[in-house]
Structure formats: structure tokens, C-alpha cells
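Sequence only, no structure available. Ideas?
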Amino acid sequence: MEKMQSLKQKTYAIEQAFLSPYATQSKNTRGRQREEAPCAMRTDFQRDRDRLIYCKAFRRLKNKTQVFFSPEGDHYITRLTHTLDVAQIARSIARALSLNEDLAEAIALGHDLGHTPFGHSGERILNKLSPTGFEHNVQSLRVVDVLEKDGLGLNLTFEVRDGILNHKKSGKPATLEGKCVSLADRIAYINHDLNDAVRAGILSMDDVPEDIIGVLGKTSKERINTAITSIYKNSYGVNDVKMDLSIEKASEKLRSFMFERVYLTDSAKGEEEKAERMLSAMYSHFMSRPEDLPQTYISLIEKYPREQVVCDYISSMTDRYAVYMFNNIFVPKGWSFIDEGR
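Reply:
I predicted one. C-alpha cells follow.
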């Protein structure tokens, strides 16, 4: 036990010696919602990272859509591969700026746990259906605070929870590590979504305006390197994490281009209409028949509004499980007849 405790103290000493004065040191965490005995070996942020990577919601990300609904190819990005992409970029930024890599990675691993089936389309649909609205970042925090471990939650540190809640561009993370994840998320998705769109034949790299490619780079590797280099040059040694204005503008242009040519095309809207009919039907079903929910969610109705718990269940579904559940509820099953000896 003494050797394990010395290992954690060694980590504290390394952070004290080498991290930026603007970094979040593990020993200075603002703590957890519920007090618990600390780990003898791991810092609290390392412990949070482990809890996230082993939770059920994290495993389900492998079958949740990033952009293309239930893609058949082996190499399309899923919500899980996106999450790993964000974690890698966030760690690279944190390392370059001498920030806390463990904290950045933990935030990244949890940032999309609340995403719905069928990507952002599912989020928009649940936001329309629920009278209280639905945002995936808020739901991600609810996953780690309430839904995991059969309603007990993961009891993560304030810093990880704050980073998860505030990872969207509109958020205001309390730590620089949270800002690393927010930027890493945007860097990751516009680049790998572009690659997926090219792979799917929706567009070619020649379709991307030259004023974007000229600034960011033609390949995914070049664009990510451009973004991280810009963040390093503009953020090292200061109490902020930001890009150069020209890189930020080019990235926003690429994002707008993706919305116009990929995210909001007629074919994408057609698939979203199908998803809306499916999720709307299931939402209405579970609102009128909450007894059909799994027992864990039935128990939650004693503490939370029914519409919130129904959203909890539907948003937890993977694409394929949502299709399975819809078929199970609404598609008639054939009768099995006894052979009458004809």
C-alpha cells in the first residue's frame, strides 16, 4: 500500500514540476459530488478516465451513428471512433501546452455519452418531442451523474463533469483542459466527416473550396496538424486555448460547407424523416405505457418526470437497437400454427 501511495505522490510531484501554471493539477481537484475513499495508486482524474472507459454507455458508442445511419462499410466513423479521435487530439493539445493530459482525456471520453441513435438527427428529434428539450451535452452529464450503474452514476470529479457539460462551442469550460476538448471535438468531426463523405461518394476533395484547403490543408493529417500547431502558437504560456483567427475562420467555412453539402442534403433529410417517425412512435408508446420500459428506467420515474426518463431510454439506444425495439413494438409477428396433419 505504501508503494502504491508513493506512485500517486510521484504523479503529483511530476505535475507540480512540469505542468503549466495554468494547468489543473490533480491534487487540486474540486472533488466529487459524493465523498468516497481515494484510490491509493491513481489520481482522481485517472480514476475518472477508467470509470468512463469501462461504463456501459461508452461501449454502446461503437454502434451509434456519427453522420451516416448504420453504415455498412468497415471504415466509417462511429460515435466511438469519433470519441477516441477527440481524446487523442485533446491529449496532443494538452501535451503541447503542458496541461493535464489525464483530465483532458477523461473529459473527451465522456463528452458524447448522451448522444442519441441516428446522430444529431436523433438529438433534434428528441429536442422537438420533449417539452423540456434535449441537448446531448446535458444528457452526457446526466448519463455519468444518474444513469450509469443502475441509477447510482459514476460520481466523477467536478472538472470532468464541467468539461463534459461545456464541450460544445457555446460552452464555457472552467478549465483549460475542457477548452482543449471543445476545440478537439470540432477539429475531429469536420475532418473525419469530410473523409467519410468522400468515401461515400457524396463529394470529392475537388469540391471543397480552395480558400479552405489552401489554409487548412488537403489531407486530414495536414488539417489536424495545422489546427494543433495554430493552437500551440496562440496558447502556449497564456491562460487560454485558442486558434489563430484565420485558421478558425477557415474551419468555420469548412463546417458550413459540410452542412450544405452533407449534413442537410435532401437524402440526409429523407433519412432523418424516417428516424423521426420511428423515434416519435417509440416516444409516444413509452409515454403512454411506461411499464414497458426496463425496470431501471421504471424506478427512475419515481424521481424524475416521465418525459425525461423516456428520453433517457431512447437516447441510450444504438441505431440497431432502436430499429430492433421499433420492430418489436410495432411490427406484427406471424402466428405459429400447430400442424393439423394435412
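The mean pLDDT is 92.
Hope that gets you unstuck.
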